[in-house]
Amino acid sequence: MQDREIVLEVQDLKVDIQTGRGTLHAVRDVSFEVKRGETLCIVGESGCGKSMTSLSIMGLLPKVAKRSTSALKFLGEELGAASSARLNSLRGNKMAMIFQEPMTALNPAYTIGDQLTEHYRHHKKASKAEAIARATELLEKVGIASAAQRLGQYPHQLSGGLRQRVMIAMALMCGPDLLIADEPSTALDVTIQAQILRLLADLQKELGIAMVLITHDLGVVARIADRVAVMYAGQVVEEGSAANIFSKPRHPYTQGLLNCIPVPGRTEPGGQLGTIPGVVPSLIGQIKGCAFRDRCRYTQSNCEKDIPVHHAGNHQWRCVMTSEVAA
């Protein structure tokens, strides 16, 4: 990965939302990069800031949210200073996103063909015939039989798995360099989920796309990730290769997440799985120290102060514990 082009670079990303009770710090100082052909998985509990991070990259935050960064670069271009027209020319074209809930992400009033071809014709200035040919090709590529006939159908005529495949095809229509997939398999059963993940991995390898996959399912991460960023309370608390995160988790939160997963050959049938006590704290107002300290078994007085970031090669984690204790 060292010599591959950096497609996405994020430094010190913050997203604040004004509420009646004060400022909600939804995303706090998040930094990462994704190279061409690489898959970065962002994991964490619901409400930890994963989706807000992805929406802020795409410039799709709600009006009440305010984004700030030291750098937000796509193929070297600073997006923070880009105009609305420039962002519109990139979204759906060079930067694409697969949204949550395929059952509701498609417009029920338009056919699959209309929704697949609209932005392709807009960005590529293609004819209707060229757009239909491209849509048919991609529907076949994502494993939908009778693709030409499907173009005339409406979303309600397709199953959840087929709708998700349509969403993937839609994201790939213009040949993006960056694909953000926000929990693309959450609403699907296990069999279809495995097919979708295999499809995403195969397409990424074939097309050389940089992919950011948002999920809370570590089983998904184990199958597809090159690198993993673990988020908690709006912050990345640990980042590293998938191999290191699973074999040598350093942050207590990462360790807690992994303890909640049954391991074949180690977890006895009917045995008790690990749990993480408590709930994610409120992110409204000033946040001091480690946000995980009220749920952590290693809590100490230093956890209320500034938390250092430790490094071990490309593996880093945010904790007061030394590497020896964390290991």
UniProtKB/TrEMBL annotation:
<keyword id="KW-0067">ATP-binding</keyword>
<dbReference type="GO" id="GO:0055085">
    <property type="term" value="P:transmembrane transport"/>
</dbReference>
<keyword id="KW-0813">Transport</keyword>
<dbReference type="GO" id="GO:0005886">
    <property type="term" value="C:plasma membrane"/>
</dbReference>
<dbReference type="GO" id="GO:0015833">
    <property type="term" value="P:peptide transport"/>
</dbReference>
<keyword id="KW-1003">Cell membrane</keyword>
<keyword id="KW-0547">Nucleotide-binding</keyword>
<dbReference type="Pfam" id="PF00005">
    <property type="entry name" value="ABC_tran"/>
</dbReference>
<dbReference type="InterPro" id="IPR027417">
    <property type="entry name" value="P-loop_NTPase"/>
</dbReference>
<dbReference type="GO" id="GO:0005524">
    <property type="term" value="F:ATP binding"/>
</dbReference>
<keyword id="KW-0472">Membrane</keyword>
<dbReference type="GO" id="GO:0016887">
    <property type="term" value="F:ATP hydrolysis activity"/>
</dbReference>
<feature type="domain" description="ABC transporter">
    <location>
        <begin position="8"/>
        <end position="258"/>
    </location>
</feature>
<dbReference type="InterPro" id="IPR003439">
    <property type="entry name" value="ABC_transporter-like_ATP-bd"/>
</dbReference>
<protein>
    <submittedName>
        <fullName>ABC transporter ATP-binding protein</fullName>
    </submittedName>
</protein>
<dbReference type="Pfam" id="PF08352">
    <property type="entry name" value="oligo_HPY"/>
</dbReference>
<dbReference type="InterPro" id="IPR050388">
    <property type="entry name" value="ABC_Ni/Peptide_Import"/>
</dbReference>
<dbReference type="InterPro" id="IPR013563">
    <property type="entry name" value="Oligopep_ABC_C"/>
</dbReference>
<comment type="similarity">
    <text>Belongs to the ABC transporter superfamily.</text>
</comment>
<dbReference type="InterPro" id="IPR003593">
    <property type="entry name" value="AAA+_ATPase"/>
</dbReference>
